[in-house]
Automatic annotation (TrEMBL):
It is an enzyme of class 6 (ligase). Residues 140-348 form the ATP-grasp domain. GO terms for molecular function: ligase activity. Gene3D superfamilies: 3.40.50.20, ATP-grasp fold, A domain, ATP-grasp fold, B domain. It catalyses: 2 D-alanine + ATP = D-alanyl-D-alanine + ADP + phosphate + H(+). InterPro entries: ATP-grasp, ATP_grasp_subdomain_1, D-Ala_lig_Van_CS, D_ala_D_ala, Dala_Dala_lig_C, Dala_Dala_lig_N, PreATP-grasp_dom_sf. The keyword Cytoplasm applies. Its EC number is 6.3.2.4. Cell wall formation. It comes from Lapidilactobacillus mulanensis. It is found in: Cytoplasm. This is D-alanine--D-alanine ligase. It comes from the Bacteria. Pathway: Cell wall biogenesis; peptidoglycan biosynthesis.
């Protein structure tokens, strides 16, 4: 079977997707799969690398991503790769795509839409689950409907906030309904971008203005003081299994972009030291959240644990970080599924879902 590993892309998590892909390339079972790397540049061009048929060291695995799109264009021989023609995937039953892309244009339903149109099996959530999980307002409303505990929140629309009287009402209701601190977030961004922790009313306007730079829908949430942050991995299609829980050992309260990707100040604690009841709760709510959005394949569910021991779902990620040092693969490793087995399972789940959909389509 041909496994197309798509990575890179127009996302702030571009470099993380490269690391995830390098890890996957080391772990793939080459007796089963022939791997075709497809690198998407920052500008959105698709570049196809040479087919990989045996394990390669990650540092020499791919040269495509070492060069950005600018040097690719300057490379007259195109020695780094060739332009990828998407119709190579069209209705290709021998292929499966692993879109190893986190964040915008990867995890938000857009690439999933492309792959649906091409009619090719692919790993992970479909369009709806991807788009809903990425949107902090949509996902919160759905999770509420299914009784999943979350922090109190207030959605804010740019059209309302532009009206001075309505803006004053919104600012007042933050104090009355949520209290401080609050977290102000663009509904659709990721990687902590555009998010501000606000400790007092006087800083609220600036934080809202900043969040509106990234989206015209913003969410304001009650901040949990000294929250611990937990994660659970989900694996499966209709009946996903939940992994054990892990904890993000943060140096500081706000797990921001720097601490996520730059300064290496976070460590993963697996298993998280929580009570059996707390573990049962996060596992139960993880599965419920996965099913509520109708996810498939893989998902990571992120929770807050407050000082009183109560858990709240923060968000779910339908294409979580997938480097061999990332939370999601570690959680499965600790739950008895090795990194190579995890990849294999995800590919099988992708093919199963594709076939199940074909059967449904045949009934229409
Ligand atoms: N309501 C909250 N209470 C406490 N901490 C929060 C809250 N919301 C966000 N944070 C902090 O901000 C980080 C990023 O917020 P999150 O909603 O997960 O955004 P992203 O989608 O960018 O990961 C969290 O990991 C946590 O450290
Ligand atoms: Mg997060």
């Amino acid at each position: 079977m041909k496994l197309y590993l798509m990575y890179g892309g127009r996302t702030v998590e571009h470099d993380v997707t490269i690391m995830s892909t390098h890890s996957a390339l080391e772990a793939i079972d080459y007796n089963k799969y022939e791997v075709i790397p497809v690198y998407i540049t920052h500008e959105g061009q698709y570049i196809k690398g040479l087919t990989i048929t045996s394990p390669v060291a990650s540092d020499q695995a791919l040269k495509l991503d070492l060069a950005d799109q600018a040097s690719w264009r300057k490379d007259p021989e195109h020695s780094l790769g060739t332009k990828f023609e998407l119709d190579e995937l069209a209705n290709n039953q021998d292929a499966v795509v692993f879109p190893m892309i986190h964040g915008t244009y990867g995890e938000d339903g857009t690439i999933q839409g492309l792959l649906e149109v091409l009619d090719v099996p692919y790993v992970g959530a479909e369009i709806r689950a991807s788009a809903v999980a990425m949107d902090k307002i949509m996902s919160k409303i759905i999770f509420d409907e299914f009784g999943i505990p979350q922090v109190p929140y207030l959605p804010v629309l740019a059209t309302d906030y532009q009206d001075a009287a309505k803006a004053d009402e919104i600012l007042a209701s933050v104090t009355t309904k949520l209290g401080f601190p609050v977290y102000v977030k663009p509904a659709n961004a990721g990687s902590s971008i555009g998010i501000t922790k606000v400790d007092e009313q006087s800083d609220l306007r600036a934080a809202i203005t900043k969040a509106f730079k990234y989206d015209n829908r913003v969410i304001i949430e009650k901040g949990i003081k000294n929250a611990r942050e937990l994660a659970v991995g989900l694996l499966g299609n209709d009946q996903p299994k939940a992994s054990i829980a892990g904890e993000i050992g943060k140096k500081q309260e706000f797990y921001d972009y720097e601490s996520k990707f730059v300064d290496g100040s976070t460590k993963l604690i697996i298993p998280a030291s929580i009570s059996a009841e707390q573990l049962a709760a996060v596992q139960k709510y993880s599965v419920l959240a996965f099913n509520a959005v109708g996810a498939s394949g893989l998902t990571r569910a992120d929770f807050f644990l407050d000082a009183d021991g109560a858990v709240y779902l923060n968000e779910i990620q339908t294409m979580p970080g997938f480097t061999k040092f990332s939370m999601y693969p570690y959680l499965w490793q600790a739950s008895g599924v090795s990194y190579p087995e995890l990849i294999d399972t995800l590919i099988n789940l992708a093919v199963e879902r594709y076939q199940a959909k074909k059967e449904i389509a045949a009934n229409l």
